[in-house]
Each structure stands twice: as C-alpha cells, then as structure tokens.
Amino acid sequence: MSKKPNPALIDEDAPEWSESDFKKAKRLSDMPAEFQQAIRRVRGLQKSPTKIQTTIRFDQDVLEGLKATGQGWQTRVNDAMREWLRVHRKHPVNPS
C-alpha cells in the first residue's frame, strides 16, 4: 500500500489533523447543549414503500456471496425475491 497521499482525496477546506489539533479537541458531550442539538443528525422518515425489518437465515456461502457483490446487496436480494414472486405467484406484487 502506498504511503503517499492521493491528490484526489486531499481536501484543502478540511486538512488532516495534527497531534496538536487532537489535543485541543473537545468531545461533543462537552459542548453546549444548543450546539449538540444543532449538529446531531436524526434520520428522517423512511421513503415509501416502508420496508419491514425481518430475520432470514442463509447458508454461510450464500450470505458471503451476496455480501461480496458489494453495497446494495440487500436491495438486490429484495428485487430478486420480487421477480421470483412475479413469476411464481398468481397475484402480482407491487413494484417499487
């Protein structure tokens, strides 16, 4: 692995912190409550259709293979299941 910085990843507006910067830094919990509230991220409402959380068990090799396809693997599994239902069910499934 190269130790040289990638010029495309250098952000002049947000330079890398020095040891001095880390020593002067404060934890969010040490900041005023108003500031904490202003920057705290809150996840918004889920876009429709609302997904339902569930648990499903896969064989280890299947799960590893799915995850190996990269980010978005769960969405691709959902799409594959929708397609399977479209082919195998008498009643159509709502596309999203």
Radius of gyration: 23 Å
Low-confidence stretches: none
Using DSSP, what is the number of strands?
Answer: 0
Percent of residues in beta strands: under 5%
Q: Total number of helical segments? A: 4
Q: Label the overall shape.
A: elongated
Q: Which structural class is indicated by helix and strand composition?
A: mainly alpha
Helix content: 25-40%
Measured distance between first and last alpha carbons: 42 Å
Largest sheet: none
Mean pLDDT: 86
Q: Helix and strand string, N-terminal first?
A: HHHH
Layout of helices and strands, plus pairs?
Elements: H1 19-24, H2 33-39, H3 60-68, H4 73-88
Describe the fold and architecture.
The chain is mainly alpha-helical and 96 residues long. The radius of gyration is 23 Å and the shape is elongated. The mean pLDDT is 86. It has helices spanning 19-24, 33-39, 60-68, 73-88. Helix content is 40%, strand content 0%. It is built from four helices and no strands.
Quick description:
The protein has 96 residues and is mainly α. Helices cover 40% and strands 0% of the residues. The chain contains four helices and no strands.
Keywords:
mainly alpha; 96 residues
